[in-house]
């Protein structure tokens, strides 16, 4: 493991790129193997997850194990040598990893989303080229969001045509995974205002990634500021992302379902911690008439309620994955809208249970659970930070408009 040496007050120093994998990544055979590999990795990732959060230690070895395991290529189509697992399986993989360490679960989100976008919008030659990179173990980071724009979809980063390549200029923030990526997809506009993914080499001249992520949650998502100063990107790596939203496709729902899976994983982790603490450390309340905290009837009821709501979120997560599978196979206005709607429902439940479970942990486990040695507040901090993606209040609006007025959700990466 590597401790970050570039602190927020010294953010002028760029973080150097990492080397590409020296050996090809494993290729997952099927859905069952994907789940088994995720569980095996999670068992290792959880061991030092609290320390990584407390000391903000980058998950270098963990990330290498994750991407080399084959789980970063599970949505590469079979036609290009990939596993092409169900999106229900992909979501479960991210949930399992996120229950062990939600920062590591989030790092894969934009990589998998870009892989999906390449399938949707790239021509066969570009797909062959980029999918081959992914199957080898190459990691995409991201340089999508911008700090000062009025809305999330407003971009100032642009590129200009320079023959066999384009030149990109701009500045990005919230760039999860960019610090230890091998390639960095940059959302940049052409002269018509259309958004593309300009996939730059992490070590390209003019591409600077700064370790200045200072949020109280999701502390080791390898995010920060990306400065793009006349960065050259070959046209072979210029992906017309806008095409994923100028007609009905599952691209937006795919980006969304991975967010849902992270939050569901956080909720699972919080409930697991709650049960463990009550069973090993908590005391029964003086008026309860019982000797053990786990026999307290109010505690029993609360844990049952949390678990029920978690299972409801997990069921909708699986349902959303299956709906996305259908929308990928048969992209029509109806199938895409259905996938978006079920994913929005899952997003609501996963957000609500992640916040409830991470908050209820302390109420049920008791005062001892707030001691710094346990670092249990990391689950609440992670849930509160990550669930701010794509506000749930707008998901309710999407559902109401759909079920009341027959209005399909908008087509973008946040829906």
TrEMBL record:
Domain Acyl-CoA dehydrogenase C-terminal: 258-390
Domain Acyl-CoA dehydrogenase/oxidase N-terminal: 36-137
Superkingdom as given in the UniProt entry: Bacteria
Presence of keyword Oxidoreductase: yes
Gene Ontology MF term list: oxidoreductase activity
SUPFAM superfamilies for the chain: Acyl-CoA dehydrogenase C-terminal domain-like, Acyl-CoA dehydrogenase NM domain-like
Statement: the UniProt record of this protein carries the keyword NAD: no
UniProt keyword annotations, A-Z: Oxidoreductase
Enzyme superclass (EC): oxidoreductase
EC number: 1.-.-.-
InterPro entries: Acyl-CoA_DH_C, Acyl-CoA_Oxase/DH_mid-dom_sf, AcylCo_DH-like_C, AcylCoA_DH/ox_N, AcylCoA_DH/ox_N_sf, AcylCoA_DH/oxidase_NM_dom_sf, S04_starv_induced_SfnB
Gene3D superfamilies from the UniProt entry: Acyl-CoA dehydrogenase/oxidase, N-terminal domain, Butyryl-CoA Dehydrogenase, subunit A, domain 2, Butyryl-CoA Dehydrogenase, subunit A, domain 3
Protein name: SfnB family sulfur acquisition oxidoreductase
Source species: Mesorhizobium huakuii
Phylogenetic classification of the source organism: Bacteria, Pseudomonadati, Pseudomonadota, Alphaproteobacteria, Hyphomicrobiales
